[in-house]
């Protein structure tokens, strides 16, 4: 929402008038960051929730046709188009969010990252590494909206002030790592015919791609990382591109995997959480290279979710494996829900109820 300041006003006074934290006001309007006052006739961007508090004074004017935005319906399956649409809505409703494109998929679809917060502690979360685990994007988007609303409203979640968490942490979220694969699972064959013959061949000539796990080239993105990759290469049953499990011809050959690797290298996150399905388990150790705090944090995750913590698992070449191996920091793979992938969407409420405490604990621990 955009408003126009009619008379010069201090940042503090404007924040008080519209019932918004002063730091959030500045984060919505980076151009005023180094000023104490906002000049007359300046256009200001505010979260949509502030429309309830626009003062009946000469300080601010706004177009009466602007209506308070409704909450985004996030309890739904997301393909890449729907995700892009809702990310745009989120950034309009909460202008302090930074939207970045960290790379592009094989089919040139953007891979989005959302960042916000001010803390030295840097947390990264991602979902939909695997195409048939698309429900992870829905869960992430649902939690994001709850968290963002609580920040603006000055509310608590799980007994924790979300505004304080905003000041104490910087959060990076990639809701959908594998847009091509998710679209294939949800929508079927892509419009481009370039990959159609290979996709059908890999899928035993079936047009039912609901079990597809890999990216559009048949590479498992979570087997693409240089953490004993050669072990997975040698023992994985697919020896060529396939709907699942093929780790590629070398580490980091796929643009989606590279985008996440570069994001980590450029940001030096303190911890990462990769959301997958299924099993209600949390994998947290890797070759005993994880820091001591990793166990303390995972115990908090277990307390809030009821999930099982698993330290050692005979698996390599995953995103989390690589992060723990190379940075010696805490990394977690959270397996949401129970059953067989793709999980039915009627599990959403149960998944969210059990997992929302994990998202929150990742920030305050």
TrEMBL record:
Name its co-factor(s): Zn(2+)
CDD domains in UniProt? M14_Endopeptidase_I (cd06229)
Any one GO MF annotation of this record? metallocarboxypeptidase activity
Provide one Gene Ontology biological process annotation. Answer: proteolysis
Q: Which residues form the active site?
A: 335
**UniProt entry keywords in alphabetical sequence:** Hydrolase, Metalloprotease, Protease, Zinc
Q: Per the database record, which ranges form the Peptidase M14 domain?
A: 76-363
The record's annotation in InterPro entries points to: ENP1_M14_CPD, Peptidase_M14
- Pfam family of the protein (one): Peptidase_M14
SUPFAM superfamilies (UniProt xref):
Zn-dependent exopeptidases (SSF53187)
Give an example GO cellular component term for this record: extracellular space
Taxonomy, superkingdom: Bacteria
Asked if Zinc is a keyword of the record, the answer is yes
Q: Which family does it belong to?
A: Belongs to the peptidase M14 family.
- What is the protein name for this chain? Peptidase M14
Protein species of origin: Metabacillus litoralis
């Amino acid at each position: 929402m955009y408003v126009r300041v009619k008379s010069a006003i201090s940042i503090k006074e404007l924040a008080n008038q519209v019932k918004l934290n002063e730091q959030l006001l500045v984060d919505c309007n980076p151009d005023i960051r180094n000023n104490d006052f906002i000049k007359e006739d300046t256009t200001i961007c505010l979260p949509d929730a502030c429309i309830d508090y626009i003062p009946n004074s000469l300080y601010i004017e706004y177009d009466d046709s602007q209506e308070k935005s409704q909450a985004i319906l996030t309890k739904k399956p997301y393909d890449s188009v729907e995700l892009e649409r809702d990310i745009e809505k989120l950034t309009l409703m909460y202008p302090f969010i930074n939207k970045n494109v960290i790379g592009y998929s094989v089919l040139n679809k953007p891979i989005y990252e959302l960042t916000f917060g001010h803390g030295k502690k840097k947390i990264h979360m991602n979902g939909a590494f695997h195409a048939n685990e698309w429900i992870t994007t829905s869960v992430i988007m649902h939690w994001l909206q709850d968290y963002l609303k609580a920040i603006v409203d000055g509310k608590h979640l799980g007994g924790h002030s979300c505004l304080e968490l905003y000041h104490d942490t910087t959060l990076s979220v990639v809701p959908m790592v594998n847009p091509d694969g998710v679209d294939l699972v949800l929508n079927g064959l892509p419009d481009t015919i370039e990959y159609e013959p290979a996709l059908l061949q890999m899928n035993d000539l079936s047009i039912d791609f609901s079990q597809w796990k890999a990216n559009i080239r048949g590479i498992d993105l979570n087997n693409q990382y240089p953490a004993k990759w050669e072990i997975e290469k040698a023992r994985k049953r697919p020896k060529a591109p396939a709907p699942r499990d093929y780790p590629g011809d070398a580490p980091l050959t796929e643009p989606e995997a590279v985008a996440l690797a570069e994001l980590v290298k450029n940001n030096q996150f303190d911890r990462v959480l990769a959301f997958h399905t299924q099993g209600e388990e949390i994998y947290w150790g890797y070759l005993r290279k994880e820091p001591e705090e990793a166990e303390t944090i995972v115990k908090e995750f277990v307390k809030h979710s009821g999930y099982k913590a698993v330290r050692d698992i005979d698996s390599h070449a995953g995103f989390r494996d690589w992060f723990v191996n190379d940075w010696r920091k805490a990394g977690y793979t959270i397996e949401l829900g129970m059953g067989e992938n793709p999980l039915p969407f009627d599990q959403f409420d149960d998944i969210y109820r059990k997992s929302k405490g994990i998202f929150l604990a990742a920030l305050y621990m």
